[in-house]
Amino acid sequence: MAEPIPGNLRVSNDVIADLAGYAALECYGVVGMAYTDVQENIVRLLSLGSLRKGIDVAVEDGRVKVDLHTVLEQGVNMASVSRNLESAVRFTLKELAEIENVDVTVHVEDLRTHK
Questions:
Q1: Which one, 3, 6, 39, 96, has the greatest CB density within 10 A?
Q2: Residue 42: strand pairing partners
Q3: Cα gap 73→115, rounded to integer Å
Q4: pLDDT tens digits, residue range 12-41?
Q5: Nearest one of 101, 106, 62, 100 to 80, comparing CA atoms
């Protein structure tokens, strides 16, 4: 077991978004992250290299707020997948970035068949 190291850990919002995105992709029923192009009024499925475009991270009142804009697999139970997704993101941020106070909101932007 590793020895604790005294000091503070600072994690950028981009790193938090990347960790949340990779945790999301590991969840059953998640096809990927989404970006909504407001001008064209379409939802785009993001590639692995641009996951953070579909994730908003903010800090309010000492809590990290993560908004995930997702594309889910058609036919899954959206409520169940959303709960699992929230749990996975909280666990990943706690274990890897030592962030305890996380609020996760899942936005289902589209449903697609998984390829």
A1: 96
A2: 37
A3: 9
A4: 999 999 999 999 999 999 999 998 877 777
A5: 106
Q: What is the pTM of this model?
A: 0.85
What single letter denotes the amino acid at residue 77? N
Q: Is 71 inside a domain boundary?
A: yes
Number of domains in the chain: 1
Give me 93's structure tokens.
Answer: 């941020």
The answer to whether the CB of 26 falls within 8 A of the CB of 63 is no
Q: Report the interhelical angle of 13-25 vs 78-97 (nearest 10°).
A: 130
**Does residue 8 lie in a domain region?**
no
For 33, half-sphere exposure in the C-beta direction (CA atoms, 13 angstrom radius) is: 24
Spatial neighbors of 47 by CB under 8 A, at least 6 apart, are none
Q: Are 59 and 95 in contact (CB under 8 A)?
A: no
Tokens describing residue 1 = 């077991």
Domain range for 106? 13-112
